[in-house]
Amino acid sequence: MRMAGQSGKWVVLVATIWIQAFTGTNFDFSDYSSSLKSLLNISQIKLNYLATANDMGKVFGWSSGLALSHLPLSLVIFIASSMGLLGYGLQWLAIKNLITLPYYLFFLLSLLSGCSICWFNTVCFVLCIRNFPVNRPLALSLTVSFNGVSAALYTLAANSIDPSSDSLYLLLNALVPLLTSLAALVPILLQPPLDSLSRSPDAARKNSVIFLVLNFLAIFTGIYLLLFASATSDEATSRLYFGGAIFLLISPLCIPGTIYARGWFHTIHSSFQMEGSGFILVHVDDLELHKELLLNGQNSPLISNGDDHGLLGENGSVQGSQRAKTSDVGCDKVLGQDLLAMLGEEHTAAEVVQRLDFWLYYVAYFCGGTIGLVYSNNLGQIAQSLGLSSSISTLVTLYSAFSFFGRLLSAVPDYIRNKFYFARTGWLAIGLVPTPIAFILLAASDSAETLKVSTALIGLSSGFIFAAAVAVTSELFGPNSVSVNHNILITNIPIGSLLYGFLAAAIYDANAYSVTTGDFMGDTLVCMGRKCYFWTFVWWGGMSVLGLASSVLLFLRTKHAYDRFERHRSRISAQSLVS
Question: How far is CA 365 from each of CA 284, 431, 461, 525, 579, rounded to the nearest angstrom?
Fold first, then answer.
């Protein structure tokens, strides 16, 4: 028996939120990395290789798409949770001295664990796209955002069981995604059939209100985790806090039913549809524009973008696959050569790697979001080197919460575009600004307050980049090719994890000395003081400035395509309102 389409899809959305919230297990690496280093008696460089292996799972993200094309969704979820159970579970057994594993098996298990995360993400993308064909961008933005709170949730869970055990994170990483998958499996198996999902403007309006409420609830959840996940408390109080977090994750189940049952929709919606209001979700206008373009489709071919409408030229004709040429003879070649003529034009993988815009985008991501991820992997050693070992959980929670807020902020351009329109590549450049600021602060001061502020800024910036990147890839290189092209883009993550992490580890080891630990046999290399990461922060800061410059160049090269598209969208939208 399947659930009703208009209520069942929201239950599926909540299940997707649960999966995302509890499967971002790579973000809590810093919580147990020091124990792992001591157990294996390895250098910082070898520890960095384990962090890189976690991130290298993204290289095999294509395997999840292949699995979904041949296997049922429920089986893919089971395989993903099994990979995590095996990868993290065996590491936990080793760190508890129940079994003995060589270093290379730790590397392979970390790789397997990272691959499981990609499989979970692919499942979530498919669920959102299948159940929200009209409101797809909002569904993806909301659910992906919850991946950023995983570290905060795991910190609360660990504190409620045994705050003194770092190895507990590995056990939780192994078991919690499996339990979450089992809980989410029921609504996923009972998800409504595709033909029961309405694509009408009225359904889009109803959905827009519910997404608005869910986003406000998400913000409240992020604030709650920020305040309580890192709070110093006993186990009983931590259990209470963790119970509150679980309640907030379950509470969205009540929202759709409440809005439908009590008939609040028309009253609530009318307050957001006043003439001249700048807060109008994009989907109703997009539907009308999409209809208008389809009516004219026989006279001019349509190439769609991520919002289901194409970019037409100033005279109303489609520019096709021709590249716009600059009319300014004195324009710099970097800004004027081989410009995009339209948004949403499909690019094959071979075409993408030949475009300057792609490589500017690649460098911006490589020198922005990826640096933020590597920074989070090194938070444990950074805090330890500054004598702040007791604050590691606080810092991880801070990064997690602000990464969550950054992901939520990535949807703001869609909410305000009727009042203030700005190219999405411009927002991408703005999102990169906090990262170089944070590294300048870290290089200038080693105080605990500076470390916390900088961690929050880096989390905010990297979260924004991670969430906005899918939409940017879709708009610049075509929505139908986004799965392939985006996988090409995120190859920068394992590359950056290896290179940036190796740089940090080499500087750390160069200043480290051997000490005997009390918990494990043997010596371990430890570095204390500002010198451990000073030059790392300088180099990372310089690279983030390069990323910011690359994003500005990308914005300048694509601004004309975004502006032309918006003018045409506004013109067609105005005509549809008049008619």
Answer: 31, 11, 11, 32, 43
Note the helical H segments in 23-61.
29-40, 44-56
Distance CA(534)–CA(46), nearest Å, equals 20
Q: Residue 465 has what pLDDT?
A: 92
Confidence of residue 199 (pLDDT cuts 50, 70, 90): low
Q: Which residue has the tokens 């940090």?
A: 504
Give yes or no for a contact between 524 and 513, defined as CB atoms under 8 angstroms apart. no
Name residue, tokens 């208008």: 292
Taking the C-alpha atoms of residue 552 and residue 563, their distance in angstroms, rounded to an integer, is 16
Lowest mean pLDDT across 17-21, 316-320, 341-345, 369-373: 316-320
- CA angle, 348 then 353 then 359, to 5°: 135
Q: List pLDDT tens digits, range 424-454.
A: 899 999 999 999 999 999 999 989 999 999 9
Angle, CA of 311, 316 and 317, to the nearest 5°: 80
Which residues face 526 on adjacent strands? 513
Say which residue the tokens 């760190």 belong to: 95
110, containing H or E segment: helix 103-131
Token look-up 């705050």 returns 163
pLDDT in tens, 232-272: 677 888 889 999 999 999 988 887 566 555 544 454 444 44
φ and ψ of 514, to 5 deg: -85, 135
Query: Rounded to whole angstroms, how far apart are CA atoms 17 and 509?
Result: 40
Closest CA to 369 of 478, 473, 509: 473
Tokens of 309: 């409408």
How does pLDDT run across 554-571, given as a tens digit for each residue? 999 988 888 887 777 677
Quick one: tokens of 538? 């300088």
